Amino acid sequence: MAKNSRLVYSSDIGRVPQPKKQATAPTGDGIARVRPEKKGRGGKTVTTISGLRLSAAELKTLASELKRKCGSGGSVVDRVIEIQGDKVDVVLAELAKRGYQAKRAGG
Predict the structure, then answer these.
(1) What CATH number corresponds to the domain at position 48?
(2) Taking burial as the number of CB atoms within 10 A of a residue's CB, which of 15, 26, 74, 96 is the most buried?
(3) How far is 52 from 14, CA to CA, in rounded Å?
(4) pLDDT tens, the chain, 107 aa long
(5) Which backbone phi and psi does 86 adopt, to 5 degrees?
(6) Domain limits at 97?
(7) Using CA atoms, how far apart are residues 60 and 70, in angstroms rounded to an integer?
């Protein structure tokens, strides 16, 4: 058998379940980098927050609270929180108030 092959079906037990991948711990230095972005967004400004060492559920909760504080929409995409509009100052103040180490990056 080749090294990259795997058992998918067995006549004894039927479909063989594949092992679940373990969720890896987020890497980085833990400093939240807050920056405004326009590129690839049709000229609209979006504030992005990256570099936080939080689980997916914690990121989603934090994003929800930041959206409420900024009074705008947003989402979590690839471990990056996106807040609609140029809300860098509001986000930096809120993250500092919550005890996160955050700094302005980019423009």
Answers:
(1) 3.30.780.10
(2) 74
(3) 42
(4) 556 666 666 667 777 777 777 666 666 677 899 999 988 888 899 999 999 988 889 999 999 999 999 999 999 998 999 999 999 999 999 999 999 999 998 86
(5) -90, 90
(6) 29-104
(7) 15
DSSP string, 52-85: ----HHHHHHHHHHHHHHHTS-EEEETTEEEEEB
26 Cα distance to chain centroid: 10
Instruction: Tell me the C-alpha distance between 10 and 102, whole Å.
Output: 52
Domain tally, the chain = 1
Structure tokens belonging to residue 52: 């936080």
Q: pTM for this structure?
A: 0.74
What angle is formed at CA 51 by the lines to CA 45 and CA 57, rounded to 5 degrees?
90
DSSP-derived pairing of the beta strands 102-104 and 32-37: parallel
Amino acid symbol at 29:
D
Place of tokens 């900024």: 70
